[in-house]
Amino acid sequence: MTKVVLDTSFILSCVRNKLDFYEELLDKGHTILIPKEVKLEIKRIRDSTKALKVRDEAVLALKLIKSETYKEVNCPGKYVDTGIKAYLEKNPEFLLATVDKALKKSVRNRKIVIRNLKKLELQ
Questions:
Q1: Radius of gyration from C-alpha coordinates of the chain
Q2: Three-state SS across the chain?
Q3: Total structural domains in the chain?
Q4: Over the stretch 35-72, which tens digit does the pLDDT of each residue have?
Q5: What is the pLDDT confidence band of residue 109, given thresholds at 50, 70 and 90?
Q6: Residue 16 contacts by C-beta under 8 Å, 6 or more apart in sequence?
Q7: Sign of CA dihedral 78, 62, 12, 104
Q8: Where would a tag sit more exposed on the chain, N or C end, judged by fewer CB atoms within 10 A?
């Protein structure tokens, strides 16, 4: 079973595009890992003064995370992305699910990306 670490950008993009990442990842036998810091970042977006659409996506993402099965991990760091990067360096066999270009380039692990706004693809 491969473990997949989800980034904030990935979760919000899936919500925005109505893509059920839980079903796709679990059907392929992956274990979903969501860092505590990602959940906190989504909560900050929900409580922010950003556009209402973005806040609504964050609310829906939090409901989705709360209702589904995943393992919570701790990725401490000054920024969420640096914490995820450090966590993945310690676990090179884990996959990263993100749409963040800078994070994709900085991590050597294999990645799961959203293709054509409709399906997940392993890179």
A1: 13
A2: CCEEEECHHHHHHHHHCCCCHHHHHHHCCCEEEEEHHHHHHHHHHHCCCCCHHHHHHHHHHHHHHHHCCCEEECCCCCCHHHHHHHHHHHCCCCEEECCCHHHHHHCCCCEEEEECCCEEEEC
A3: 1
A4: 999 999 999 999 998 788 899 999 999 999 998 889 99
A5: very high
A6: 57
A7: positive
A8: N
CA distances, 19 to each of 61, 83, 99, 113 (Å): 11, 26, 14, 12
Domain containing 49 — which CATH number?
Answer: 3.40.50.1010
Which token pair is 51?
A: 């556009």
- Please tell me the distance from the alpha carbon of residue 21 to that of residue 48, in angstroms, as a whole number: 25
Structural domain range at position 40: 3-122
Calpha distance 70→46 (Å, rounded): 21
What is the pTM assigned to this prediction?
0.93
